[in-house]
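[Meeting: bench + compute handoff]

Bench side (C.D.) handed over the final construct sequence. Compute side (W.E.) agreed to return the predicted structure before the next meeting so the bench team could plan truncations. Sequence as handed over:
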Amino acid sequence: MRITEIKDIKDERVADYARLTEAQLRNRLHPENARIIVESPKVIHTALESGLTPLSMMCERKHIEGDAAEVIAMADAAAGSEGIEVMTADRSTLGNLTGYALTRGVLCVMQRPDERDPEEVVVGARRIAILDGVCDSTNIGAIFRSAAALGIDAVLLTRDCCDPLCRRSIRVSMGSVFLIPWAWISDVEEVRQYGFKTVAMALRHDSIMLQDQRLKDQPHLAIVMGTEGDGLASGVIRNADYVVKIPMAHGVDSLNVAAASAVAFWELTKKE
């Protein structure tokens, strides 16, 4: 482990933390150089346990031998012969450098994992989620957390969704984005070639109830969730094998997509 005191935002060693945008970190032109930023000891621990490669850490000085000591040791062991570089300063300096308060005083830059093939991700799966145009990072993170906790086997996302590996999504998911397999798809209909029936979540007069026995009897279901506000496109709903609703009370028109996903995941993964 190498500890470096940081005082200047122009220091090139803090560029990943202080100056690069999410798009620049993702680096589509050179994916071998793509990075992600993982925040808080618990989430960093999950990422390391999942096999991600740490590149550097930024830690509030008091946490190096405190709350962050265990994950620093893990990252140091995973970083290879040179060990991990831990950049440090007091809380206010780190806040000024990064532009936000550090959760539990520690961040870790990691190599972005390679994209996976959808067929590889869904092989052997019984229940999967498809996110179509969900563009809020908080919702993405919350959906992944519910998916991992409630027994969803995989998540597929259309390309207009928010990146599950952006900093906020990772933090909101509490590292669940590293626990559940996921992949990008070009179109919701792509999932049919893998043998799944689609369940479109939509409040329509012809919807069936979430607890309908026909859904429970299906061996392979893909639960399709739509974008915030507008929900699923009419074409996606029209082509779905089932259209399913969660009944609302008190005149409420719908649930937030993250809340709706948790209800749907719970009901559709239950075993008799």
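W.E. noted at the follow-up: The longest strand covers residues 54-60. C.D. will use this when planning the next construct.
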